[in-house]
Amino acid sequence: MANTVIQLKFSEVTSAPATLNVAEPAYSNSSGKLYIGGTTSGNVIAIGGRYYTSLIDAATDANTVSTIVKRDASGIFSATAVKASLYGNANTAAAWQTARTIGVSGDANGTVSIDGSANANIPLTLGSTGVSAGTYGGATQIPTFVVDSKGRLTSAANVAISTTLNIAADTGTDAVALATDTITFVGGDGITSTVYSANSNVKFDVDNTVFRTTGGTISGDLAVTGNLVISGNTITQDVETIRTEDSLITLAANNAADAIDIGFVGKYVSSGTKYTGLVKQAGGNYFLFQNLLNDPTSNALSAGSATAANTATLRANITGGTVSGLASAIAVSDGGTGATTFTGGGIIIGNATGALSTLANSTYTLTGGFAAANTISSLTVDAYGRVTAATGAAIAIGASQITSGTLPIARGGTNQTSYTAGQRLVYDGTSLSSQANTSTTVTGGLAAANTITSLTYNSYGELTAFTGAAIAIDTSQLTSGTIADARLPTKGTAGTYANSAYVPVITTDAYGRVTNITNTAIAISASAVTGSFTVSQGGTGVTSFTANSVLLSGATSTSAVVSLNSSTEGHVLQVSSAGVPVFGFLNGGSF
Predict the structure, then answer these.
(1) All structural domains of the chain with their residue ranges
(2) CA distances from 558 to 22, 430, 565 (A)
(3) How far apart are alpha carbons 50 and 260 in whole angstroms?
(4) CA dihedral sign, ordered 65, 68, 70, 76
């Protein structure tokens, strides 16, 4: 946080805090010390502050009591006494208090008496190693020595020099006289030797018949057990069989963009040398080609070489993907249509093995018309089964054409040939037949104040009986006057409706009578509310807030919510000593 001020817990009167949380810092201006809470609960540790820096600032090389000692520019400081084990040189002692005899022993012996007042040398006498004094080595002999762990010769002798040198090679051995013979280094197949007398070196070199990184030919089998790395631009393999364990071969590994063709090419001879292969052309699609006259050695097919004339044929089972951009339509014999376009809305017809084609629309001619009472008297159909013409005529059957039988019910007849005069006709299940007339029985009577209370019909709908009774009028039939309470109908349900949470919903009839009443929960839209809800009502008590503010409860439990904000960078929300939230720079409090 830029420009953020962090203050620690502090005190102006207490020299040290009684307790601190683990890693909690505090500073006392009274003692001038900085403290931090230890890992043990309540443990307070002094780690710095003005008290300690004052001690350091007061350091001096003078002999001052209760002051840190500091060396002067020469590295010297003053002191009354130093109580310690001292190491180094004494520059004021004239002699040792007691003279001492210093001696050495071992391979060399000697002693000297010294009191430190003057320099002294110890005369040494070397011990004997047992080696006889003399000269060792010569033209015909070499010296041999025995040396102990301290580098001293403990034995010496002369050994005669051998004048014969045995030599051996991959085949053959020999012995040469060192004084008279010459050893000759002879090269073999592809190897030459050269002696440099200036520095006594022998050099062996190989010619181009030996495999080298600069060229040559390897005859026979070559087995490489490690990785084989070949650098260069061209690899030529004149072999019959190539076998590899790699299941995926990467081509164009240095192709940083879609800039070159990728694939494989093979050579064959058919009326001349030809090339075939499968290549993804740069920026394009895969191309299976044949009959290519030129070898695409430049990592690209020559311009215009990927044409329909040298497109190769692929025999395979294809599944998935999208077929698009075909050079020609798929033939009917291959399961296609043989065509690339069809007329919209047209009928598709076959043509043996030829391409499917669109059948030209036919002309339909209607003679006469079609109505509810019409029928089709003729139809004309072309070779494709399409109706090209039709004739409609009204249905007309002359009575003279019915020469026998009785027209049944199913054909609109009566299925009868005669009826009884004066009788009505009824359907008896098979025909319209005559039914004998019935008589009517009257119960009660019909007068000015009477009405028919019941009617009796037989299965054919004939009135066989009815009853007359005095008229009884329902109150709903009254159009004037007043009805006593005893005659009023019962409507709705008796009860208490509406309270602080519900309003009544009342249904009345055309006469203003309550026919139904129910309670409905009160639901008020926020847009219909005016003013503001208090805290005790579940609101905030205010209608707006200051932008970018922190909302706090009021002074009491029911006071309106207040806005608290600060425009000072680095301020944080904290609680004052009075327990009130305030914005300010972080303060650790006091102790």
Answers:
(1) 9-57, 261-299, 441-474, 491-523, 533-591
(2) 39, 93, 21
(3) 75
(4) positive
Rounded-to-10 torsion of CA 290, 293, 296, 302: -100
Q: Which of 420, 440, 416 is nearest to 428 (CA)?
A: 416
Instruction: Determine the pLDDT at residue 33.
Output: 92
User: d(Cα 151, Cα 108) in Å, to the nearest integer?
Assistant: 14
3-class secondary structure, 527: helix
Does the reported pTM lie above 0.85? Answer: no
Cβ atoms of 287 and 281 within 8 Å: the answer is yes
Q: Give the SS3 label for residue 50.
A: helix
Q: Which two tokens stand for residue 455?
A: 């009617």
Q: What is the CA radius of gyration of the chain?
A: 65
CB 485 within 8 A of CB 475: no
CB 36 within 8 A of CB 24: yes
Cα-Cα-Cα-Cα dihedral of 472, 475, 480, 485, to 10°? Answer: 120
Res 1: pLDDT: 46
Token pair, residue 209, equals: 């018949």
The structure tokens listed for 335 are 């399961």
Query: 183 with 192: CB under 8 angstroms?
Result: no
DSSP character string of 155-214: EEEEEEPP-EEEEE-SS-EEEEETTT--------TTEEEEEETTTTEEEEEE-TTS-BTT
* Two tokens, residue 363: 């002309």
Per the CB < 8 A criterion, the answer to whether 396 and 372 are in contact is no
> Over the chain (591 residues), what is each successive 10-residue block's mean pLDDT?
65 89 87 87 85 90 90 87 74 78 82 83 79 74 80 77 78 78 78 78 77 68 82 79 87 84 88 88 83 73 64 84 80 83 82 82 78 76 81 75 78 80 78 76 70 75 76 72 65 71 80 80 77 79 81 81 78 77 71 70
SS3 of residue 295 by DSSP: coil
Instruction: Classify 94 in phi/psi space as left (phi over 0), alpha (psi -120 to 50) or beta.
Output: alpha
**Rounded Cα–Cα distance for residues 279 and 106 (Å):** 91
**Distance (Å, whole) CA 369 – CA 384:** 24
Q: How far apart are CA 335 and CA 323, in angstroms?
A: 14
Report the SS3 class of residue 353. Answer: strand
Which position has the token pair 């009805």? 483
Burial 491-510 (b: 16+ CB within 10 A, else e): eeeeeeeeeeeeeeeeeeee
- In whole angstroms, give the CA distance from residue 332 to residue 355: 6
